[in-house]
Amino acid sequence: MLDRPGPARRRRLLLSLPSGRDRGEGSVSHIAVILLVAIVTGALVTSVLPAQITDRIGAAVCRVPGEDCGPDRTTASQSDDPGAERGEAEGPAGRGQADAPGGDAAETPAGDGEEGKGDYWSCGWFGQTACDMVQGFGRGAKEAFDGAAGTACLIHICSHSGFKHSWGGVKQLFTDPGDSLKAMWDDSTKGIREDWKNGHEASAMTRTIPSVFGMIFGGKGLNKLGDLAKARKAAKADPHAAKTASESAKAAVRRAEDAAAKFDIKGAEAALKEAEKHLRDAEKATKRSPTNQNLYDTAVARERVAHARTALVDARVRSIMVKTAVGRQAQKILDRYKPNVVYRRGGGGFYTSSNNTIYIDTRWSQNRQAVVLIHEASHVEFQHTGRTVNGRARELSRSDYVEGMLREEAHGRVLEVEANRELREQGLKIPRNTHESIYEDAYERAVKAADQESKDHGWPPMDQVERSQIGKRAGTKAILDEYRAGRVRPSIATDQPYTEYYGAAWDRINGTAP
């Protein structure tokens, strides 16, 4: 059984007929197209459209059957479909139908990807034209119905965004009728051109009348114009808006960071708020015009704003810290050795000498963060002055290494206790903890014992400096004893007390860990 010739083959057969027959008879499809051109062109010419517009639309009509309209005419699809010259406007089937070897192009899925109408009906050699006519009319009717739904949006029988979109199309029609009607014509006749290109001339013919009707009297064209209006609005936007907003954001960031460095919290907050506003403007402008330069400028501004937020958090914490004597000393240490201070949620608080970075847990209150920063600043000082045993595990015995690290930890904990006491005296609500009670009890007992000894021996009363020194030594020893007894654990996620924590570190460094 011979295969039924496909549309592409039928088209080639028609083109190969003698020229005399072409002049005398003409195919049914060509007659239908001529009739179509006459009907549509007549309707448009008798309307109120300007001559320039009808010329453009007439050029589009004469392009439907693939005829050349002359050197001065331009199809709408050439300007509106940048993928047409590259063959990207059609789906895979649309590109491969004419040249696919050994197959029937009429039974290949149509390249109508945008509309998603599916395959053409296959009704046999004699019934194919009738099927194409019915299917074409059905597709055109569906488009007209969609247009009617779009028109309903003009009276708000749809979503609010659809209502605005439709009226935006109406506005576009009056402000730029030439390009508007060209866009409407191109959108409404795209399916017709695809039918003709795929060899289904009868479908293109019957699809035309309802499709064009939907364009002129329905809302399908309005939807296209709504898209066009949005595109025009974006195109008219300042092409440098993203860069301008990004630069403004970075300038506000600099002011925020300068204010934060001076502990001017209100000034830093105001500048950061301004920077965030400019960043939002830059992001909106970049969304409208996503060039590589705009994307880069906005990304840089976003990173700078993130740094400013961190600077503000750090300024708030340090403004609390410097209210105490030990906090002001800690600030001098931070200024001298300039460690990085990273605020992040979770992980506790600690200092790593390898990258000179302090980590602070933002789950804590800002008062607590300030006190922990004082503690970690003491580790920075131990590291940079050579007082720490950290990094000397291979030189020291296990017990000496652990003892040295416990002394360093106890020193930092004592600074926390003293900072809490000073902040509490200034009216801040700081909850008491077990270590403060241990320290203060040892402090008071030591001072009371020293006073009694002076009294028993008839010595002169001690001044406040002597009393403070005696109390601090006793309090520090009491805290150190807590560490030595294994009753203190790091703030990081571990169940090990400090004794085991540093012992395991020595084992790991020296290769003796089990």
Say what oligomer this is. single chain
Q: Give the radius of gyration.
A: 41 Å
Distance from first to last alpha carbon = 83 Å
- Residues in helix, %: 55-70%
Unreliable stretches:
1-118, 216-222
What does the main sheet amount to? 3 strands, mixed
Approximate strand percentage: under 5%
Structure annotation, total helices: 20
Q: Helix/strand-derived class?
A: mainly alpha
Encode the helix/strand succession as letters.
HHHHHHHHHHHHHHHEEEHHHHH
Key words describing this protein structure:
single chain, 514 residues, mainly alpha, disordered N terminus
Topology:
Layout: H1 7-16, H2 19-24, H3 28-45, H4 51-63, H5 76-80, H6 92-96, H7 124-152, H8 160-175, H9 177-197, H10 201-217, H11 220-236, H12 241-261, H13 265-288, H14 292-321, H15 325-337, E1 340-344, E2 350-352, E3 357-361, H16 366-385, H17 398-425, H18 434-457, H19 464-484, H20 498-510
Parallel strand pairs: 1-3
Antiparallel strand pairs: 2-3
